[in-house]
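Office hours follow-up: a student asked to see two folded examples consecutively, so here they are.
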Amino acid sequence: MKRIVTFILACIMLLGLVACGNAVEPAGTTAQPTETTAPKVEKDDGVLRVLMIGHSLGNDAMWMQPSVFMNEAPDMKVVIGFLYYSGCQLAAHVNYAKQTAAVYGYMEYDSEKGDYWWQADSAGNMNAYRYGTTISGADPNSGRSQTSKFAIQRQDWDIVVTQGYPWEVAKVKSTAYDPNLVGNMAYLKQYVLDNDIDKETTPKFGWNMVWTFPDDDTLIRPNDRQTMDLNFAKVEDYYTKSAQVVRDELMPEFNFAYVMPSSTAYINALSGYKTTGEMYRDYAHASDFGRVMIAYLWYCTLTGAKIEECKFAPINYQYQKEELAYYMKQDLVITEEDKAVIIEVVGNALKNPYEITPKA
């Protein structure tokens, strides 16, 4: 009898040892992964998704893009998101991220919904938008009520573009100079990666080189051509310093997949083609021509299209949609003269993103 009992106990112990090989970890312990890092892959679902994190000058860069994409690539599926806070430096973006501060406006263009922008309200609902007011019943004052995390997780972004403030990057004004520009960019990049909704894919990063302007807004008067032209020397100096920072400090550290040389196209246009009065609508922000020019620069950068092969159809300036009761306004026609300037200055900026190419 003892022999039988002993045999049974031995069998039970043997079965127990075999079972331990597939045992579930007890609560409170952490199983070790078979691989320490999962391979990152790039998705290809036929949709280009681009997120821009910026300020009001980024708004100028974004505003005409829906019409440009619809005119130039009507069959292309594109989603462009724009997270903005006026005058926001990288350091402020970092602070708002740490605080999860709901201070941003968020707008989005989806080519499958039409050639206009949608704006997020405080509840995260997207409402059709036109110049400072929503037109689908939402409160227009609720536009700046989102966090950066909301925008990052809104789509599975392919490309995330950031930008600094002109003086911040150029390091020419003590009140705006950011001594930790690289560190703040590194934090923001990691924050995007940490909050990416798809951990199996990695968004590419880009940098928008924001055009520069004099720091004394009393010197910029759109209707005073002589006064504005006197400020070109200061604008040129700011550009040269900011371009050097992007080329020598940011690019070696981050190796951005995309650099939008918006400031280079701007300074090229000011170097013999256009006056400052024709490029700025106030002391800093882009004129209609400037907005169109930058939209085409972004389009060519993102798609690889050649600027000289673009159609330059009229811009649907107010995004006219009768079914949405849009305020009707005549389309913005790009003249042959302006078309020639855009081809020249954007083409040169794409070839030489950190250098001024004046009119020959």
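And the second, which I mentioned at the end of office hours:
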Amino acid sequence: MNFKSYVPQNTFIRSYMEYTDGVETPQSFDFFTGLWIVGASCGNLYINRPRHPVPLNHYTILCSNSGHTRREYNVRCAKRFTGKVHVHEEYEHYIGKDKSGKDAVDYCNNGYNHDHMLLVTTTPVKLFNDCHAGVTAPDLASKCIFVYDDERKRAIAWPREDIIELPEAVLHRTTRDTKEINQLEINDTALRSYSSWYRKRYISRDPFLSVLESRDDEHLLRIAGILCVNDGILEIQGSHISKAIRLLNVLKDGRDRLFSGIDLGSGGRIVEAIEKVRKKIIAVGADGVRDRDIYRDVRTNVSLAEYRLLMRIMHEVDIVEKVQVTKSNGRSYNIYRPTSGVVKEAVASEVLARLVPHQY
């Protein structure tokens, strides 16, 4: 998708994308970071929706597998533009190493409809673990824009020096007039387009995804509002709603891949299965336990195919030892024994780190 086509020449977001063009970041990260910077620079500006106004502040999470996309570069750029406190290169550093994340959760929940902003990066595995730990609950996650992308613009072995000046003057010019108003209006054409989308939008039957989708109407209006400010118009047009709908569809596609590869709505069934296997293996000790007996304990959590993949990975990362036993009639079966790795603290995280790529 060519994100540059969504913003005109000489606007801030387009200038920012040209500034980051020499770095191996995905174009989507550049675009949505530019969008975030504009929103963060508009003060208390909000969209004048009756009874439920929509502020332009928002929480954006850039998500990709480790080392693929130089995603931290966008966060560093955002800090230079805004100086915002809650801009972090790693999601885990923001929520705290103890994974309780209480301060972060309170910050997001209490400031969602005010002037709080958040821009962080993470990986699919960390995000998955935090969902099961209760840090990233569905309600909190619904307040975030997840940008999931593993595709670099291109391979750049040696990034060039900054030959394009940081477009701070363009940002100042873009947001200058927003300081004189406190609300954005929407014209009739844009309102009809938005209302039509709202009535027809698809809501997932998945319990987790349906909560995530519950604030898509607000995200759509925010995107349209920021595009409007970026264009220097200060009134949402039909074209802004049309672009926002297409951009939201891209975000939803990535979000669905993030959260629906493994069923998060079932109370952490994969993590629960890992723990059941671990406890059973420890309990039987060196005698080992038959394959079918383990599956009998976890079949309410995982399918047979998922179970086989799970055991294969636990064997590969040296959590269990696999032994094939041949009976007198020539038939064979597998038993599993514990290794020293079965008592490690982060067994579930280690297995998930291997499991999640298989799901995508």
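Two things to take away from it. The two ends are 20 Å apart (CA to CA). The first helix runs from residue 12 to 19.
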